[in-house]
Specification:
two-stranded antiparallel sheet; two-stranded antiparallel ribbon; 3 domains; about 190 residues; elongated; mainly alpha
Length: about 190
């Protein structure tokens, strides 16, 4: 029982020699492009190499295409220029919106930083801890993993962590929202 669709190799060969692509032949015959390419590779006598025969893009190399009249050339250039102007206008609008969104992101970042400072999340609070702080590779599982500085090499609190937490009691409290904003587990 053959499950493959019929393949008319003679029709495919004629289309190939007329300059049709493998995809166009496949669509016409109702098979996949790979079937056409496979047949062409196995039957080189019927499917000559297009580079050697001069077949390219549906026309033969060396045979000039019809020349455009001045009017046709002018219309084509107008269409292309209009398209380019539209693309440039869209690019300007995109740049303006990106600049606006970047400004919005910067403002939001500054607002979050201000909120963190107001709630006490600045590294200035942790400056006294830097004397006993450790780099990450020296921390044990029971040490507090709260970063106490703003730049590399990053240092961590290293105090004894609270039970079932990565932070000591002080940093665990600071990591949670304000008591009024905490949700109660149901």
């Amino acid at each position: 029982m053959n499950m493959r669709p019929e393949f008319d190799i003679d029709t495919a060969s004629k289309m190939w020699n007329e300059g049709f692509s493998a995809g166009m032949i496949a669509n016409a015959l109702g098979v996949s492009r790979n079937v056409v390419i496979g047949k062409a590779n196995r039957n080189r006598d019927m499917f000559p190499n297009k580079a050697k025969t001069g077949i390219r893009g549906g026309h033969r190399v060396g045979i000039p295409r019809a020349e455009l009249t001045d009017e046709e050339r002018r219309r084509r250039n107008e269409r292309q220029n209009a398209k380019r102007r539209a693309e440039r206008g869209q690019a300007r609008a995109d740049r303006a919106s990106r600049a606006e969104s970047a400004e919005n992101l910067r403002q939001a970042r500054e607002e979050r930083a201000t909120q963190r400072r107001e709630r006490g999340f600045t590294a200035a609070i942790d400056i006294p801890l830097q004397a006993t702080a450790k780099p990450l590779y020296e921390l044990r599982a029971c040490d507090c993993h709260w970063p106490v500085n703003d730049g590399g090499p990053y240092l961590y609190c290293a105090a004894i962590a609270a039970e079932e937490s990565d932070y000591c009691a002080e940093h665990l409290e600071r990591s949670l929202p304000e008591p009024a904003n905490r949700r109660v587990a149901a």
